[in-house]
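Let's practice the habit of predicting before peeking. Look at the sequence and jot down your guess about where helices and strands might fall. Then scroll down.
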Amino acid sequence: MVRTTRVIGSDSGFVSAPGMLAYNASKGALVQLTRALSVELFDEHRIRVNSICPSIVDTPMARRGMGVESFADADYPVHTADDVAWSVLYLSSANSHTINGVNLLSDFGYSVRSSFPA
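Done guessing? Here is the structure:
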């Protein structure tokens, strides 16, 4: 029987923002931890390890951290807790049995966009 473990990371493991050095470094560590654990645990223990790495999620903690009462007027897309839960559900399902060592970046495609003003 194959079991699965999920790690909740952040898009901050892939991108950086000023003033967030420790947070970015810790989330980058989770990206590599997911990969290393997937190698260590699969062959011997049949445990798959994947992470979900969303961009900002509308939670009370995120609102406090961003200094806003709501993300309703945000100039960027914001996840709901349900969005993250659906990703966790998928990676927990038998439908994802081929996926191991993946850091699922869920950022509305922002990380693939060029900053070049073309």
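How did you do? Helices lie at 21-45, 60-66, 81-92.
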